[in-house]
């Protein structure tokens, strides 16, 4: 995983790598569509075969056998294959091959609740207000899982699913999410309302003020 516009680290560590002499090896990374991302040929970086979009964006850390991909963007997401060939008599022999997947993360803004409008209605026992609320968060990646509402009163918390709209910016590929909720609330009781943006299993959640 790498944050948007930061450096991504793609590892190609292999057994006995500490004893390997880089001058005897050809090391190269390529994408799932076979574009060459980086190449080190017998200890020297080689640029002849690189895909244009990776020129001046990569550097290999020879000690850690890790490729640094600078300014990682959403278009860089996907699988990368590292292949290491050893120079022997005749054709080069592949001694290591590994695949890693790159996932980009962009932080969503803290969800914000806005009051759209209220309507009053007299119930049989107590006056009730209808709250029409929206909750929004923007500029994140990947696509969020869902947005839920939490309504708390004393020791009781109820969870609501509003009508959620997710849109993706065509240029930046970042997501915006808005959820709308229309709920009746008693006017004489203090309640807390918050909304929760679920980002996924490993990314956690964001909660509104």
TrEMBL record:
GO terms for biological process: cell surface receptor signaling pathway; cellular response to lipopolysaccharide; immune response; negative regulation of T cell proliferation; positive regulation of T cell proliferation; T cell costimulation. It is a single-pass type I membrane protein. It comes from the Eukaryota. GO terms for cellular component: external side of plasma membrane. Keywords: Cell membrane, Disulfide bond, Glycoprotein, Immunoglobulin domain, Membrane, Receptor, Signal, Transmembrane, Transmembrane helix. It is found in: Cell membrane. Its main location: membrane. Pfam families: C2-set_2. Residues 1-100, 111-150 form the Ig-like domain. InterPro entries: CD80_C2-set, Ig-like_dom, Ig-like_dom_sf, Ig-like_fold, T-cell_Activation_Regulation. The keyword Transmembrane helix applies. This is CD86 protein. It comes from Jacana jacana.
